[in-house]
Amino acid sequence: QGWFQHLKVPRRDTICEARLRCRADPNPDKIDLSLVTFRDDDNNAIVLESVREAKRQAQLADGAHEIQSLAGHPGFVQRAIELAYGADAACIREGRVAAVQTVSGTAACRLFAQFQFRHYRYRQIHMPRPTWFNHLKIWEHLRIQRSDYRYYGGRTRDVNWAGFTQDLERMSAGEIVLLQPCAHNPTGCDLDLAQWQEAAEIMLEGRLFPFFDCAYQGLASGDLDNDAQGIRAFEQSGHEMAVAQSFAANTTLWGERPGCLSFVCSTAKEAEAVQTSLEVMARSLWSSPPAYGARIVHTLLSDPDLRQQWEAEVKGMTETLQQRRQALVQGLMDASEETWQSWALHGSPHQMQDSEDDAPSRLDCEAALNQRGMFSMIGLNPKQVAILHKEHSIYPTRNGRIALGGITPSNLQKAPHSLLSKML
Ligand code: PMP
């Protein structure tokens, strides 16, 4: 008889579930495709050279372990908002941005959700279908209702633009819409600039509040400014908005947890009230955010030479991701007719409610070449994923998401010629 006898073991999310299964698998040739980190050719998590150098400099500059203020590292926060909105953005010049350092992107989302719960009377959030699994949980824990808007087109392997805009138009004034500005997780499908501008207009007219979750800036196009074009289009069109930023993937500082949550307000006075509210809430969550990662990112973004080197390395990572996507898709395209038929035996590809997925085809796979960022959705359904886990020791997540960070040459070699065909 214990205090916790009523407690049932909860179901883990799809990402943790795949990772744990992979860890428990004794097969030495197993392949983890649930990863969030980026592996090099030998399957080790990479550290960028610019980050190594910033680390050296940040440690030399300040070896003490003084606690940070509630808002975190002020220089880091300043650099973070400049990266999101643009260094010369009107909202920054006019002092209309409230911002605090957070414990990476997850806690930036959580702090926003908490702000919504505490200070916002609409207890609802609209999310893309599908979205990062943790989005569902973060808002669910605060008992904020979620409704999904159409986003992924399924068979087209692209955004369902018509469905997305129709859903935006149907929303009610005052509601909050979660958007991913680049390298959409899990689909890899993004809007282009003209689409962002149109979405900004629809949302301005409908009085909808945008919340951007920016976890992969730079890793969609290889260009940090380009990947912020959605955020900047909204800012320039006069939106008030919030942005969560993770620096985990684009700096490879996954474990150090640098992150930021910022709000663009209509006046400096409102920004001051939001700023203090965020600090009051952060006080009871983590009091002061971790210093080490923020110091490194501050150095990285402030030193012109390091910054240039970092930008080149981000571009390099993006190119590698695209090469891996190409290898994945090419392998599928080259698979035999027999392999394609065995795919069909296991059912049609991942059937999104609003997609027109019916039968798989080589053409659908080719369309996946247009996807961007760390992930690929080629149309695996949960049954096919279960077969990959059980019979082939290959571990994408249950929703069919493949982490390109794990499609390394050594992994490809482990399963010579067969990794890609086994996936079918
Ligand atoms: N949002 C999205 C869409 C993500 O994919 C991630 C990373 N998996 C995050 C936020 C935040 O992750 P982290 O807390 O590691 O920065």
TrEMBL record:
Q: What are the names of the required cofactors?
A: pyridoxal 5'-phosphate
GO MF term (any one): L-aspartate:2-oxoglutarate aminotransferase activity
Tell me the keywords, alphabetical order: Aminotransferase, Pyridoxal phosphate, Transferase
Give the signal peptide range: none
GO BP annotations listed: amino acid metabolic process
> Which segments constitute the Aminotransferase class I/classII large domain?
29-415
Which reaction equations make up its catalytic activity? L-aspartate + 2-oxoglutarate = oxaloacetate + L-glutamate
Respond yes or no to whether keyword Transferase is given for this record. Answer: yes
Q: Name one GO cellular component term.
A: mitochondrion
Provide the family line.
Answer: Belongs to the class-I pyridoxal-phosphate-dependent aminotransferase family.
Per UniProt, subunit arrangement is: Homodimer.
**Protein's recorded name:** Aminotransferase class I/classII large domain-containing protein
